[in-house]
């Protein structure tokens, strides 16, 4: 398993948390998602053999929550 912590600055409410969580859980290989609204961070644990970080970033972007550098 691989862990990645992403900065997602556009999150500002519980609806954002739910949308981001659902987008991540829909990806094959995602084992766990932790959304930290106060820090605007998303921690994702995933199986690197099924998914890569770029696919995670793309899914967040498509959900309306682009990852900041």
Describe the structure concisely.
It is built from two helices and three strands.
Topology:
Elements lengths: L1 E6 L6 H12 L4 E7 L4 E6 L6 H10 L7
Antiparallel strand pairs: 1-3, 2-3
Low-confidence stretches: none
Strand portion: 25-35%
Q: Rg, please?
A: 11 Å
| N/C terminus separation | 23 Å
Largest sheet: 3 strands, antiparallel
Number of helical stretches of at least 4 residues: 2
Secondary-structure content class: alpha+beta
Mean pLDDT across residues: 96
Total strands: the figure is: 3
Helix content: 25-40%
The best one-word shape is globular
Q: SSE order, as H and E? A: EHEEH
Strand numbers in spatial order across the main sheet: 1-3-2
Detailed description of the structure:
With 69 residues, the protein is α+β, with helices and mostly antiparallel strands. The chain contains two helices and three strands. It has helices at residues 14-25, 53-62; strands at residues 2-7, 30-36, 41-46. The chain has a three-stranded antiparallel beta sheet with strand order 1-3-2, with helices on one face. Strand 2 and strand 3 (41-46) form a beta hairpin. The mean pLDDT is 96.
Keywords:
single chain, alpha+beta, 3-stranded antiparallel beta sheet
């Amino acid at each position: 398993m691989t862990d990645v912590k992403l900065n997602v600055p556009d999150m500002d409410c519980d609806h954002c948390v739910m949308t981001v969580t659902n987008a991540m859980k829909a990806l094959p290989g995602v084992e766990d998602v932790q959304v930290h609204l106060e820090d605007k961070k998303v921690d994702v644990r995933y199986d690197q053999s099924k998914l890569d970080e770029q696919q995670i970033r793309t899914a967040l972007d498509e959900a309306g929550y682009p990852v900041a550098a």
